Structure to design on (180 residues):
């Protein structure tokens, strides 16, 4: 923590971003969750120190993406996002929204609600796919996520979430996909 603080103080104009991850095959990870990361960032308490949420890393730890985003935004500490998807077992880095579509949509919704205007980075590792096509599809899926969200007025989404009305939420989800 002392070294991170010194690094922040060395150039206060430079943003420094911590990315948490559950594990790495050849290294020991000290910050596996959003909670660990926010604790350190808030304790160091420098305006140029923030967090990068890698969606795949959050999924690996069984975090709720929207909740992790909201926690960071609440404290003004979400400096960057890495987009990908996985099966929650390994850092697969597959095309955005192909495994966890609804979690991706909810994450996009809350980024918009919090007024996030930072970077949307891609962190992909296409094992079998053409890398350029995997990147292009991920970008298309992010835009498509906003397209799906735009099919329902935001106020209807907010009301359904605030009321925890599962029936209304199911109806809104179906409307997003073009159903009745």
């Amino acid at each position: 923590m002392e070294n991170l603080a010194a690094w922040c103080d060395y150039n206060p104009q430079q943003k420094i971003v911590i990315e948490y991850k559950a594990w790495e095959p050849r290294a020991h990870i000290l910050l596996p969750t959003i909670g660990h990361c926010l604790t350190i960032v808030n304790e160091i308490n420098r305006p140029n120190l923030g967090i990068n949420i890698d969606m795949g890393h959050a999924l690996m730890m069984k975090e709720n993406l929207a909740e992790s985003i909201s926690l960071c935004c609440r404290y003004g500490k979400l400096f960057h996002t890495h987009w990908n998807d996985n099966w929650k077992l390994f850092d697969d880095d597959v095309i955005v929204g192909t495994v966890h579509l609804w979690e991706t949509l909810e994450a996009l919704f809350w980024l918009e609600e919090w007024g996030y205007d930072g970077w949307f980075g891609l962190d992909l590792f296409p094992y079998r796919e053409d890398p350029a096509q995997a990147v292009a599809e991920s970008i298309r899926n992010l835009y498509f996520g906003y397209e799906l969200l735009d099919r329902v007025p935001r106020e209807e989404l907010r009301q359904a979430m605030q009321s925890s009305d599962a029936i209304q939420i199911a109806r809104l989800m179906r409307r997003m996909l073009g159903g009745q």
Q: What stands out?
A: The CA atoms of residues 24 and 114 lie 31 Å apart. The domain at 2-129 is CATH 3.20.20.150 (TIM Barrel).
